[in-house]
Amino acid sequence: MSALSNKKILITQPRPESDKSPYFELARKHGVDLEFFPFILLEGIAAKDFRKQKIDIPSYSAVVFTSRHGIDHFFRTCEELKITISQDTKYFCITEAVALYLQKFILYRKRKVFYGADGTNKSLFEVINKHKENEKFLYPCSENQQDNEIVNWLKCNKCEFDTPFMYKTISNDVKSVLSRSEFDIICFFTPSGVRSLLENYPTYEQNGTKIGAFGINTFKAVEDAGLTLHIKAPAPETPSMVAALEKYFSGLKK
Predict the structure, then answer these.
(1) Is the whole-model pTM more than 0.70?
(2) In whole angstroms, what is the distance from residue 250 CA to residue 237 CA?
(3) Domain check: are 201 and 125 in the same one?
(4) pLDDT tens digits, 41-89
């Protein structure tokens, strides 16, 4: 029997909509049991509260998106405020998957939509850098936004930009999933997900559970929580959490 057989892995995100998700291929290949459960929920900020930020959306020529949630809340806010987005607006996305999600809301034109090569902030910055002249950027984000790497890069590179809050992150009740099963691995994707764990279980102890994390700020949140981090993404060889898990599983088999 494989050393991985029946290992239980908790992915702290919603279950992928497509059965073709690489997560399911990973599970089949290694015989592991995957469970998906979002540790955070996103709540939209009402249009009347958004107005208080005094952001004139049509005056921005480019929008930066790092998630589908950002896209959803950006266009929801525009609809509530009855704002029409110019067809000349440019969109800079963290991944191709996020970029393609724009098709729900706009006529997708390749010369107006750009995305990073490997899902890292670095590759997103490389794309923005090629087009930043004469652009005014809008980076919609959460009210309790903790990923400042993008904001810092925009500042350091003297980009004209604003970061309006369009939604807020709240902790989900994760006791139902963690109380009924012990997981061999728990994968986090945001500092907010780690915070949710600690809000639900203030005295949480790992007890042998391996922790995976995506992104520098999530690494820091895991370590600040006094937890040991075993699986990291993105990295040059592991641009996604799936790739990082694949590498980890391959190491266990050796």
Answers:
(1) yes
(2) 13
(3) no
(4) 989 999 999 999 999 999 999 999 988 889 999 999 999 999 999 999 9
